[in-house]
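sorry for the late reply, my laptop died twice this morning and i had to redo everyting from scratch. anyway the thing you sent over, i finally got around to it. pasting the sequence first so we're on the same page, its 120 residues, then the predicted structure underneath. double check i copied it right bc i was rushing
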Amino acid sequence: MTMTDTFTLYHNPRCSKSRAALDLLERRGIHPRIVRYLDDPPDAAALRTLLRRLGIPARALLRTGEDDYRALGLDDPALDDDALIAAMAAHPKLIERPILVRGERAVVGRPTERLLALID
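ok and here's the structure:
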């Protein structure tokens, strides 16, 4: 099964979970389009599309352990999705990874096995 055009992986090659996700896909014959989101960050509109496909609020896509999360005060519950999306667009390392997109659906690959929901 080769579905190069139907899968997109938001990938950070320095992240072990992201590398594991790519390995899982390739072992199943899936060669996704790779988006190295730290090099080519999604803008706010692309993030809104991703969140809609994921079916989660912006806060659920934030990496809360990053220094920028604390430095930018993103733990403030008063911040709305627009503010959080703007922060992720400006600081893409705040975006949880890896994210696999297939059509109008997406999933965060943590744990990696969650990717199977889009494959099987």
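The chain has a mean pLDDT of 93.
thats about all i looked at so far, will dig more tmrw
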